Fold:
Amino acid sequence: MSAVLVTGGAGFIGSHIAEAYLAAGHEVVVIDNLSRGKRKNIPFGVEFIQADIRDPMVVELIRERRFEIINHHAAQVDVRVSVADPRLDASINLDGLLNLLEAARRYGVRRFIFVSSGGVVYGEPEVMPTPETAPKLPASPYGVTKLTGEQYLYYYHRVHGLDYAAVRYSNVYGPRQDPHGEAGVVAIFSTRLLDGAPVVVFGDGEQTRDYVSVRDVVAANMLLSDAELRPARLLDDRAFNVGTGVETSVNELAAALGRVSEKTPEIRREPARDGELLRSSLDASKLRRLGWVPAMELDRGLRETFQWIAEQ
Ligand SMILES: NC(=O)c1ccc[n+]([C@@H]2O[C@H](COP(=O)([O-])OP(=O)(O)OC[C@H]3O[C@@H](n4cnc5c(N)ncnc54)[C@H](O)[C@@H]3O)[C@@H](O)[C@H]2O)c1
Structure:
């Protein structure tokens, strides 16, 4: 079977992606610098190379192994880090991407999957759920590098014929989500509930997000690894929202986690955070037309995540 390179495969989402390619019979190589990822996340049977995506040895690796697919999940993922250090964010998310892209176009990669973010490229969108064609108005350096990443892909596609798909995720949750980060509210709330600590809600808690299970995110990646896609004329032609289209408020999420954990969450209210998006939900009709359906209902997905965190 053909070989697949998964960058960031020691991280939350990338490790599930690596597992799925392996289950589909591919030979899977993971590169990750373990800046946030963990060795124990890497599925058994995957070849792991500890490396930074900016390292020239990655080009050598792509030359030697002739990957059929590169699935690029490694990134600087923290909005606040991007604000504090935009150059670091650009170095990983753009220079790192270009290191991979230059090798991909030279050494015959069949398809490149780039992970963008539907939570940041649209800024504060007017239309809900937001379609791919909505204005792209990122409000953080992280949003800028995700959008610029897509534009680079579009350029490599148009000028060098590189085939690609860009996936714009909503808020992904599931097992292996890091509960210590700033994002990942499902994992953070679960950990607080387990510790018997209050969950912190900023503002009135009516801000909404579109929570999509990592299981459904994996299915989207698998579909887009093989789907026949028309050549892109516009940037959005090869961009796919991955979300449920359902808005869940922070208050509703806390209540749902209370239900699945059979604990009553104690809520601590704190002032709203500057610049926090009020509403977010993605219209994934385009991906649905290719056959994708988000199959995991929120309560079932939350239960799975809560149980996983409880076992840790
Ligand atoms: N979690 C979400 O809700 C969400 C939403 C939208 C987009 N995304 C995107 O999905 C991807 C995966 O995110 P995640 O939530 O699994 O985060 P994560 O931090 O668990 O995974 C990112 C992985 O990349 C690795 N990495 C970081 N910098 C690297 C470098 N320079 N070289 C090699 N490896 C490096 C980290 O060690 C980590 O294992 C990212 O591209 C992120 O921007 C995530």
